[in-house]
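1st attempt posting a full record on here, be nice pls
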Amino acid sequence: MSNKQFDVVVIGAGPGGYIAAIRAAQLGFSVACIDEWANEKGGPAPGGTCTNVGCIPSKALLQSSEHFEHAGHAFKEHGIDVAGLSLNLPQMLKRKNTVVKQNNDGILFLFKKNKVTFFHGRAAFGGAAGAEGYPIEISGPTTETINARQVIVATGSNARALPGAPFDEKLILSNTGALAIEGVPARLGVIGAGVIGLEMGSVWRRLGAEVTVLEGLPTFLGAVDEQIAKEALKLFTKQGLGINLGVKIESVTTGENNVTVKYTNAKGEAQEGTFDKLIVSIGRTPNTNGLNAEKAGLQLDERGFIAVDADCKTNLPNVWAIGDVVRGPMLAHKAEEEGVAVAERIAGQHGHTNFDTIPWVIYTSPEIAWVGRTEQQLKADGVAYKAGTFPFLANGRARALGDTSGMVKFLADATTDEILGVHIIGPMASELISEAVVAMEFKASAEDIARICHAHPSLSEATKEAALAIDKRTLNF
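the predicted structure (as tokens):
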């Protein structure tokens, strides 16, 4: 008896995988999606790292911890007196888990709605393509082999551990453990001042931990526009995050209830820190182990990423790869766009992903968001540009919110006025950046944004004013 046959089989149900499966089904293909994530009861938990131990739960905890900090500090200014404030961490974690489950269940519902067949288990290539396509072996809660005419690999990434200091998720934590600490640590160490390190450090600082961040690079947030990064460093330090740059980790030693980190600081001086918990956020590695890539002849590069061309095609016919497992930024929304594009390419359409207009967000407080090139990149490339900034301090809505830190910054071509980059640090930056993404997709000029009517009072007026600042004609600053 032949195995079940599908037009498209997607391996992985993270943001890239489940979206690719749904789009392929919309286009009329018979589609299967295979994913091994399990909830605490052993049931399926599609959504990948993002839904289970990444984007979604971290935002839930960021929101909860921000409420706690506001209740303890900011409410008084609003005329709200809170007596006997206390933290119920188990309830906070329970709410986070509920939000995760709602997203898991939502994906399963979408599969059903779009007639995507879901298999709960780990998928691997069973060999090279045969007459019925590629054999895909599923093991785990579901054990069987299916055949795929087209394969989309969307297996995501794993947290990178420090050499000699593996994650135990009790003392040395990846993002997984950082989202499930059962008691607020008095002293929390964070190695890596990237997105995950800063977000998780912010959560636990707000809840009462003394947080020390150790970053190997000499500059803070090197990928961010320098002016924005300097503002962020100033604000985060003022909040109480202890940020150390230019650090070299010498050793990490676990005790019974603590972790000791020996390191040298930027001056080359020997330092030592002892922490109740240590979060390690030094990047992520592609999740290709166990895929049996070699059995099918699928080519990986020296770092374990699946080698693809600009269209996400691998070296094998009818095998595609998307998201964290291929080149490009490790962002959920980048994976989603690639998933849609690949499904459309399989259907003979012209799927498209524009890497130049992918927005980036750090969900700290204030939030940081940007799209396009930074000022330092434009200088390095020799591009003549104009810059305009506008502070939230001069924005009426920000004053009413009681959150006036940060600014909006526009960078535009000096000759054509085309928007080359927009950088925001401030309240709701993650939402405000969308206007800039749309503008850049349509090759808009700064003048276009400056001439659009923005609602008053709104935070988006700061975007309009920063566009006006390109020609030094702000109206409210």
